[in-house]
Protein 1
Amino acid sequence: MRRLTWLPPILACLGTVAAFFLAPTVDATQTADRLLPFFGAAAAVMVALFVGLGQIQRSPSPRSGRALRFLHAPTFASLLVGTVAAIFGAIPSLPDWTYRYLFAITIGGALYGLVSAFLAFSATIAGQISAAKAQRARTIRGDRSSDEV
């Protein structure tokens, strides 16, 4: 897990570029109103993720040290930028050319946050499993002096 700290920014950059080129067109025949559900849902998911990851960051447990390496300032900054882009994308009166950029920024911010959250939760689970295995090994050996409650 330690070597995967590079993964969120790389995937976010690739996702942003791909989303820019694959973004739906907005013009006179295809209005921005059809993108409102996407931008609204993306903003809601990113706000929920921002709050959840912030709670993990602010109240770490003794076994969450591995997870905290994935939850740092760029994670929260990308979620914030993606959320702001999604909120602006929900405004149907913007110029048509802006929606391609807002779509790409929203995807990039969400991807960075989701990948970071996945890696943080995976690291936490891996830490819990290794602690449980160590506890079991101590129990089998009969070493009860270092038991944790």
Protein 2
Amino acid sequence: MPRVTPPKRDPSYPDFPTIVHALAYAAEHRGNAPALACLDRVINYAQYAQAVAALAHRFGEAGVTGERIAYLMRNSLVAVALHAGMAARAQIAPLNPTFTDREIEPLVRDVDPRVIVCDPEFAERARRLAQLAGGAEVIIAGADEQTVERLLSEPAAPLPCRSRTTSVRISSPAARPACRKAPNTGTTI
């Protein structure tokens, strides 16, 4: 197989140690530029960074540093939640919410999360899955205090940018045999 040479990086573009650093840079230098849009809702980079920092603080209170967070979400607050997990130095494990219980239960056992973050529509399912994970805490994004509006109403805090990488845990029914051989494998970003 031929070796693929990656494209040369534009030297005028800053080199960031993590994606959280890139978000902090965008918030500082392009704060008013649109960052995320969903239906009629648009938040800019400054708001995005503020919401990520607030949720990262919430994750820190839950003791996730070095632990795993499972995400059972559609494309809602998932970008904010994933970046918050990275900022909190947790291992992140996105799970496909369309999987059946038979497909997702082994993944949750494999991931063994400390926290499960879910959309409100998956709250009951996340609570059942949390029991499989030894009583993981369930945080419902978009409900109660975990809405973007609520996160933005908290006092602004800087993003916790650290040089440490975040581990992304990839689990799928197709990957199960590989996971049995090496249960703690993941992709580092």
Protein 3
Amino acid sequence: MRLRLLKILVFAISGFLIFKSINFGISKNIANCWSNQFTINKGDTLTIYANPIKPQKKSFLVIYDIHDRAVDSVYIDLSARIPQSYDEWIKGQNFSGKVNYKCNLAPGVYHLEKHFSFCVRNPEADIEIILPHLFQLCSSNTTGASFFSPLTNKKSKLNLINSKSNIPFVINYSKTSFKIADLQYLYNFLEINLPNKKIGFISDMDLTKMNPSKTYIFYGNYSFMEVNTAIAIKDFVFKGGKLIIASSSIMNNKVRINRNLKLISFYGLSGKDPIVDSINSAIRFNDSLSSLKNYQLIGMDYMFADKPQTGFFKYCNSNDSFFVKGSYFNGIPLLNDCLADLKLTKFDKIKIYAKASCTYKLKKGFGTIGILYNGKGKIIQLPTEEWFCAQNLNNSAIKNLTLELFETAVK
């Protein structure tokens, strides 16, 4: 009897120590970590790279799900000291240790110690949420420079992000373009209100083909986009596909990606890129040389909400209004009131449900909520990535309008 009690006590203490190490151990010791893939299938192997705050030979690295719950962990040797330098964007990032992790997690989105997120794809998904990893790469200053940093802009208008070692593109999680909390609200909203639909995730870095039988949701900041992704979107809508775009900034800057060299190129202005081909030039989408215009591809462009009242939206068929929490807003170009500029967008039909109650200095940059039709294809446009935050979805007007638009998208 005593031996049995002793075994139970030892088992309980061991379980407590393991639980404590998973939830509270290495989480305080990870300086940064990445993986070599953004989207995987269940059963695939990830190579995980990490640096510690303090060198430690045998440590847990914890994997969390969309609800921030620890779902798995892996041992990794972080005993090697790796000197870090500010010019890693040229020389490549160094890491203390790496480990191969065979992923048997259920389909969903996960993150490594809040430093790197990845998707396990659901092959049966009816709806796929696209995560904006490319914007994170372009805006991250982890490796010493980004397309927004003074260092890069000061050196040259030829903006390059380069990581020449055999590790992945570097992402600074603190510069993430989507919020895990808001992603939870979107995911829960879909599960509750569309219970018969299966939900999946994919990174925009892996979005080169889109299945017309699925509905895709662009959620976050997609101001940087690869040419192949833009073309995939155009083909998808033309073939009758349905998109939901919840973003204040999408398809502004066209970039080239060389995955072998870990290189992202963006030049911004026409005439700066030595590759003058109008499709492959890494310039702004609405540049005079670009044959891929964002208005023609997605029918919208971003606006800057510099005043709080720009968050007030007015229905087009009534005098009622509602407030939308958001820092930036996207918009369909308008001719006047709620009448869309079809000639500019090249879409067959546009129905606008509501628009921001005050104008913007660009005149065509109203914040709008609507549906763009191209044959049987549809784009449901929501004005901001903050649309799915708790404050907005707790508003009955926003919730009901979202349900109406989603039913249009998935039917």
